[in-house]
Each structure stands twice: as C-alpha cells, then as structure tokens.
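Researcher: I'd like a structural prediction for the single chain below. Treat it as a standalone chain; there are no partners to consider.
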Amino acid sequence: MRLSMAVAALALFALPAAAQRPAASPELTRAAGAIGAVWRPVDGALTARSIAAACAGAEQEMRALDAAMPAELDARSAARVRGIRALHVVPLADTPGAAYFFPPLAMTWFTPGLGAYSVISEADGFIGVRDAGGQELAFQIGRAGDRPVLRIRQPDGALLTLAGCAPIAPLADDPAG
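Model: Treating it as a single chain, here is the predicted structure.
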C-alpha cells in the first residue's frame, strides 16, 4: 500500500511541466481577446473622426514593430522593444494572464516586456495589469461605436484614452507547439 502511494506521489510530481500549466478561466480568455491589440492614443473627444485619426498608420506600425522584434523573444530582449505611437499588447496563449506589453516611446512610465493581467470586474471592463517592472496599472476596456477603447490610469492619476486599431491574437508560448 505504501509503495503504491509513493509511486502515485512520484507520478504526480513527474508530470511534464506543460501538463501542470493552469487552465485559463473563461474570464481570462475573454480578457486576452479584449486586450490583445494595437492601442493608439486618441486626441480630444471620442468621435469617429478622432478614432480614425488615432488609427491611421497603425498597421504599418505593427509591421515595423514585428520587423524590429528580436529573433529570440525573452524577458531581456523584450525589455528593449517599444512602439512608436501605439501600445502593443500580445497575450500568451499557453500562459493564462501573461502578455508582452510594448508601450510607445512617450509612455516612459510603462516598462516594456513580459507582464501580467487579471480580471478585476468583467462587467465593468476593469483589468489589472502589472508591467515588466512590477508596476500595477488599471485598464478599463469599453467601446466607442464599433471600436474597442482602452483607458489607462497613469501613475500621476491622469486618464489616457486609446483606440483599439488592430487585434493581436494570443502568441503561442512555444512557437513550435
């Protein structure tokens, strides 16, 4: 009996690491789909015109960021990547609640690289974010017409409004898998 319990305990601890990954909750899965995007700042009031102006050039910026991406993306190399005008959020498909955040040059207070997110209130669109430097930020996702909109409470208390200009699908943690 003791031997079979020892074997069972050994088998439990010997499972492959991939099998031990936590499963994504439905809320985290929806949050990954909501925050995974190219977010660009909106100047002035939220109107169709201001959102269109914010998103002008977003796809070109996304291609430029992709071209500048290091061959081996890890915590160290990701910390050197920044957007031009956009905040690029790339959730990780195999690690619930993890994402790469590539803020624009103007967001000096937001540390680029591997960070984390969690759902605070799905009904209200509140998502808690921790950047690569460990700073906690409050995100709120909503809609303006047919576009997603993101509001970020900056460390100084000011609100920053960004338009979701292009979705970014979750990235497989292991590109071969």
